[in-house]
Design a protein that fits this description.
- 62% of the residues lie in helices and 0% in strands.
- The protein has 3 helices and no strands.
- Keywords: Membrane, Transmembrane, Transmembrane helix.
């Protein structure tokens, strides 16, 4: 007799003893949830560190500065 066949004979007995109102995820469910929480915390900490290194100041584009109209309403000089 194979082990899977032996286990299939025990499954109906376990189902009769199981109280469906008291089923909980248990220790394994808590450990998986805790591992996910720690992973998300580590990713957020890493993201904050990387975002702190980003330089948001852009140098003005020389082509865009030359193409801007003059403030007094006169036409821009041509090249």
């Amino acid at each position: 007799m194979y082990a899977t066949q032996a286990l299939t004979h025990l499954v109906p007995f376990a189902a009769e003893e199981l109280d469906k109102n008291k089923v909980t995820p248990g220790v394994l469910g808590f450990l998986v949830f805790a591992a996910l929480a720690v992973g998300v915390w580590a990713l957020m900490k890493s993201m904050n560190r990387h975002m702190g290194r980003v330089n948001f100041e852009e140098a003005p584009d020389p082509d865009a500065v030359a193409a801007e109209p003059v403030a007094d309403g006169a036409a821009a000089p041509r090249k």
